[in-house]
Amino acid sequence: xxxxAYALQLQxxxxxxxxxxxxxxxxxxxxxxxxxxxxxxxxxxxxxxGKRYTLMNEGPMPEKFMYMAGPNTIINHEMNPPERKFGxxxxxxxxxxxxxxxxxxxxxxxxLILNIDHHATNDLFGHANLVRSDAAATVEVLYxxxxxxxxxxxxxxxxxxxSGLLTDTGGFRYSNTSPKVLQIAADMLTRGxxxxxxxxRLLEKMTYGQVSLLKKGLNTLSFAYNKRxxxxxxxxxxxxxxxxxxxxxxxLVNYARNVEGVEVGILFKEKQSGVIKVSLRSGGQADVxxxxxxxxxxxxxxxxxxxxxxxxxEAITRVVExxxxxxx
Length: 328
Ligand code: 5GP
Ligand code: MN
Hints:
- By secondary structure, this protein is of the alpha/beta class.
- The chain folds into 2 domains: 4-203, inorganic pyrophosphatase (n-terminal core) (Alpha-Beta Complex), CATH 3.90.1640; 208-327, Roll (Diaminopimelate Epimerase, Chain A, domain 1).
- The chain contains 11 helices and 12 strands.
- The chain has helices at 3-19, 33-48, 138-149, 155-168, 179-190, 195-204, 208-219, 236-242, 253-257, 288-294, 312-327; strands at residues 23-27, 53-57, 74-76, 86-92, 107-117, 128-131, 222-224, 229-234, 264-272, 275-282, 298-299, 303-309.
- It starts with a helix and ends with a helix.
- Bound molecules: guanosine-5'-monophosphate and manganese (II) ion.
- Guanosine-5'-monophosphate binds at residues 28, 95-96, 99, 119, 121, 279, 297-300, 303-307.
- GO terms for molecular function: nucleic acid binding.
- Residues 23-164 form the DDH domain.
- Residues 239-322 form the DHHA1 domain.
- It comes from Paenibacillus cremeus.
């Protein structure tokens, strides 16, 4: 993105935070490491500015990310919808307004939203928008914003930033691993972050549920279009059988994508009967964000997602066909 436009966005975002108080901080539904890291990073940033804030997500924050929370609590809107409403919202890692989910039920009519994100498909739904699509993670944008605001990099904030970078770059491996990513990561290590501990926690360790689910998932591995498309599927019954949680499905899609010759790997996760969450990963030949958008989703060129309504078989047929068209 052009430096000048981004510098102006940074100033506007800093002004938004300086001029207001009592913020609601929200990330996308089913938060990943970057969404979680960004939520807690903003909390620590607001804390050091002496601002009041409330953290919320549409559903539960996965336990595996709670080491980043420090003394903060995060409200599960589904379980504890708040009595009050909020007029100042900071949205992190949400490509569009719908990703905020039902949390928007506690927005005032006259709400002002600061939209901080890194998705190329971001539709700039905020009243102020801080979006840098060449950033590997939203925490990378928050690093810039912390510098802009003159916030000191405390150990808690650093852990959030490093965790978001680590997860959204797949352990500093994906093509979004820019020199800037590694410079920020190096800065975080210099400031005392124990990168190897976070890597083990976030990337290496598997829960028992995860391995059991992997066994089932690999049984469904299927191919089409000369083995250039591969997919796995996981049903609600699989989850129940293996005692796995919804987050245990994270990463399964890589087993489809990583097969030699595969251009697009797909994971179909049954969320409830008739609701299939689709994760798409591309080697670069197909723009999976464009494919996901056709089903009402979005994301990045090489990693995107959407939700398809219908049976597992219908979802597979429809999405695989679109992917095949994109590759032809
Ligand atoms: P995942 O497959 O890991 O859920 O998501 C991959 C990428 O696509 C992430 O950057 C995520 O934010 C984005 N993404 C996943 N699902 C959706 C969706 O339903 N809508 C939009 N706009 N983006 C999504
Ligand atoms: Mn992200």
